[in-house]
Amino acid sequence: MKHYAITGGNALEGEVVIAGAKNAALGILAAAIMTDEKCVIENVPFVSDTRTLLKAIENIGAEVRYLDRHTVQICGKGIVGDESLSVDDEYIRKIRASYYLIGALLGKYKYANVALPGGCDIGSRPIDLHIKGFETLGAEVEISNGGKIVAKADKLKGEHIYLDTVSVGATINIMMAAALAEGKTTIENAAKEPHIVDVANFLNSMGANIKGAGTDVIRVRGVEKLHGAEYTMIPDQIEAGTFMAMAVATRGNILIKNVIPKHLESISSKLTDMGAKVIEYDDSVRVMADGKLKATQIKTLPYPGFPTDMQAQIAAALVLSEGTSIVIESIFENRFQYVPELIKMGAKIRVEGNTAIITGVSGLHGAKVEASDLRAGAALVIAALAAEGDSEIYDIDFILRGYEDFDDKIRSLGGIMEVIKTDD
From CA 193, how far away is CA 168, in angstroms rounded? Predict the structure, then answer.
C-alpha cells in the first residue's frame, strides 16, 4: 500500500509538461487491435489504466511492445477471433475502458466477449447506449451471469443511430464497430470531446472513413479492413486543468507545457472569473494567482462545457475563494464524495442533491483523508498543497490510474510531497 505525505503552504512555481490524454489513449489502444498490421502510438501516458488495458490486449494474443516509455507498438495479428476469445482477468474489471474492446473486437471479428467494466465509483454509468448501438448495427448482445458482455453478428450493417444522451464511451464504441461495418452509419447526438476526435483521427490514419468527429453528427462509411499506422495522441486536457487549479489554489505561477489551449477554454474561463490570470501560448498556458480569489458558479456539461472530470479540482480551489460558490454536477450523481474529506481540512461545503454550495474560508489545515476516485484524489492533493501543515492522502491507487509521475511533477514545482510505502 502507498499513500501521499504532503506538507502544504508553498506557492507552486515553475514548468510542468503534460502527458498524453488518458481518455484518448484508452480508445486508441483498443482500436489498434482492429488491424493485423503493426500500429505505433506515441505520447501514450504511462499510467496504470493504460498499462492494464495493454496487458489485457496482450493476454488475448496481441503483440505489445514498449519502444520507449511513451511509445507503444501493437500488432493484433495473433488474436484468435472465434468464440474462444474472452477478455477477462482481475485487472481489466478494474477499469472502465474495458468496454472499448467490445467495439474493437466486434468490428474486426464480429464477436466480442468482454468482462463488464469497473473504474471509479462516481455514479451510474450504464452501457445501454453502447448495446443499443451494437444491436442497431446488427449484433446480438447478451450480459452473462458471470458479468460479461457477449456481442456477435453474422455481419454489421451501417444504420442511423440516435444517442438518447450524450455519451463519450458509446460514441467511441459505436464509431469503432461501424468503421468495419457494411455501408454508412450516422451517429446523432454524438459526444464532441477532444478524445473523440483523436480516436476518429487514429482510425482514419488506419484507413477508416469517419467524418464529423467533434460535431454532434458523425458519419462513418465502413471499409473492408484497416491497416497499420503511426500516430501521436493529444495531450491530456484534465491533467493540464488539474495543474491549472493547483496553481490557483496555492497562489502560484505555473507554465503548463504540451497542451492545446483550445481544449482548456472552459477551465481557463472559470479560473479567470475567480481572479486568476491565464496567458495562452501556442502549446502552453501560464496560470498565476497572487491575490484574493472570487467565488463563481460552475455547471458541468458535455464538451465544450465545463468537464465533469475537473469539477472536484476546481472545488478544491473554490473553498479558498471569498464568498459563496455554486457547483452543479449534471453528469454523474456521485461526484461529491470528496466533500467530507475537504471538510476535514476546514472547508465549508453543503451538498444538496446535485449541487455543492461552497462558502469560502481563509485557509485549510492538514488532515488524513482518503481518495474515493481518480479526480477526487487529485482534488485532495490540491487542497493539501494549499493547506497549512501536514496531510496524508490514502487510496492513491485511484490517482495513479490517471496521473503520470504526479508526485515528481509537483516536487519539481516546489511542492513538498512524498510517496510512503507501508506493509498494510
Answer: 7
Provide the β-strand partners of residue 327.
298, 356
DSSP for 90-120, written as a single string = TTGGG-GGGGHHHHHHHHHHSEEEEEPP---
Rounded-to-10 torsion of CA 403, 404, 406, 407: 140
Q: How many residues does the chain have?
A: 424
61 grid coordinates: 494474443
C-alpha distances out from residue 107 to 31, 54, 155, Å? 10, 19, 9
- Which residue in the block uniquely carries the three cell numbers 442533491? 353
Grid cell digits, residue 155: 455481419
CA-CA-CA-CA torsion sign (99, 104, 106, 107): positive
Cα 337 to Cα 100, 121, 189: the distances in Å are 27, 9, 30
Widest distance between CA atoms in the chain? 64
**What pTM was computed for the model?**
0.95
Residues noted as catalytic = 120
Is residue 105 within 8 Å of residue 114, measured between CB atoms? yes
For residues 336 and 354, what is the distance between their CA atoms, to the nearest angstrom? 8
112-162 confidence digits (pLDDT tens): 999 887 544 444 457 899 999 999 999 999 988 777 899 999 999 999 999
Phi, psi of 153 (to 5 degrees): -155, 145
State the Cα angle at 233 between 15 and 415, rounded to 5°.
25
Q: Name the helix (H) or strand (E) containing 406.
A: helix 406-412
Neighbours of 157 (CB within 10 A): 16
* Nearest by Cα to 305 from 344, 278, 331: 331
Provide the sign of the torsion angle of the four alpha carbons 306, 369, 337, 44, taken in this order. Answer: positive
The cell numbers describing 394, all together, are 490514502
